[in-house]
């Protein structure tokens, strides 16, 4: 049995040497965890190991404490951040820094996952739409969350993209484009409150999931003109829709990860 194990080890070693000599990436094992290694004859090989690089669970106090911007019209309780903003439409409500500019290459395969919990009563039979987005200070891509009054002609969540405009003291989203929003559900379907969103920055696409109708999934591709740049600061940005709307956020979970893939340039 021991002789067989030695033969297998020698075979794997020879296979790894062959792969390196022939310009292929090898797969080493360290502590039982696979680790991709770039061969020495590919100096431009970019190595990424699948791992989470940032993860936060933000309750109302955390949202205010960690925000680089929060609309001044808010009320804070342990269970909810309430934003009663009667200003113009599309104002920025909240912004949370995620990635500092220049931390990664432009084509780094980053994925952002968001889980948010909104107040149910504030979005039931009243106008209360929100836009959760990822921003690079110039463009935003994300998902538009609709209230129950729109279920008869709109999806509960749908892709959206736009530009960041307005004054530094009060940014807004401009040129808002909603993507494939006309996939309605039952008009009397309850507001779920909880949404799970995934956005792949390098692929410029994302998906949104809610528990409605035994599970509703929306997959979105964003336009190339709205592709985010990692040369800029990346943040989570939450925008309002219309004026005279009230929003309640219970918590936000955000995770940034590097996909387990290896782009190779020769």
Tell me what you see in this structure.
Residues 1-23 form the signal peptide. Keywords: Signal. This protein has 266 residues and is mostly beta strands. It has helices at residues 2-21, 60-66; strands at 26-30, 33-37, 51-58, 69-70, 74-77, 80-85, 92-99, 110-118, 130-135, 139-145, 157-167, 170-179, 194-200, 205-210, 216-221, 234-240, 245-258. Strands 3, 5, 6, 8, 13, 14, 15 and 17 form an eight-stranded antiparallel beta sheet that branches. Strand 11 (157-167) and strand 12 form a beta hairpin.
Radius of gyration: 22 Å
Helical region count? 2
Q: Using the alpha-carbon principal axes, give the shape.
A: globular
- DSSP strand count: 17
Signal peptide: 1-23
Keywords: Signal
Q: Can you give me a brief rundown of this structure?
A:
The protein has 266 residues and is mostly beta strands. It has helices spanning 2-21, 60-66; strands spanning 26-30, 33-37, 51-58, 69-70, 74-77, 80-85, 92-99, 110-118, 130-135, 139-145, 157-167, 170-179, 194-200, 205-210, 216-221, 234-240, 245-258. The strands form 3 sheets. Strands 3, 5, 6, 8, 13, 14, 15 and 17 form an 8-stranded antiparallel β-sheet that branches. The protein has a 7-stranded antiparallel β-sheet with strand order 4-7-16-9-10-11-12. The protein has a two-stranded antiparallel ribbon with strand order 1-2.
């Amino acid at each position: 049995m021991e002789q067989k194990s030695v033969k297998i080890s020698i075979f794997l070693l020879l296979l790894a040497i062959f792969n390196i000599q022939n310009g292929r990436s090898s797969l080493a094992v360290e502590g039982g965890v696979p680790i991709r290694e770039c061969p020495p004859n590919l100096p431009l090989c970019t190595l990424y190991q699948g791992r989470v690089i940032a993860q936060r669970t933000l309750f109302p106090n955390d949202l205010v404490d960690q925000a680089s911007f929060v609309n001044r019209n808010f009320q804070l309780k342990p269970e909810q951040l309430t934003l009663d903003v009667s200003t113009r439409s599309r104002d920025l409500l909240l912004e949370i820094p995620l990635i500092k500019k220049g931390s990664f290459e432009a084509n780094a395969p980053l994925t952002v996952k968001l889980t948010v919990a909104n107040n149910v009563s504030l979005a039931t039979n009243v106008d209360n739409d929100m836009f959760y987005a990822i921003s690079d200070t110039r463009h935003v891509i994300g998902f538009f969350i609709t209230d129950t009054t729109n279920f008869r002609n709109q999806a509960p969540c749908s892709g959206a993209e736009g530009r960041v405009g307005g004054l530094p003291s009060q940014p807004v989203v401009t040129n808002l484009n909603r993507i494939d929003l006309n996939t309605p559900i039952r008009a009397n379907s309850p507001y779920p409150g909880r949404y799970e969103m995934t956005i792949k920055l390098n692929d410029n696409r994302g998906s949104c999931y809610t528990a409605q109708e035994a599970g509703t999934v929306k997959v979105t591709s964003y336009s190339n003109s709205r592709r985010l740049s990692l040369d800029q600061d990346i943040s989570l940005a939450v925008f309002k829709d219309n004026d005279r709307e009230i929003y309640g956020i219970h918590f936000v979970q955000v995770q940034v990860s590097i996909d387990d893939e290896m782009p190779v340039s020769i």
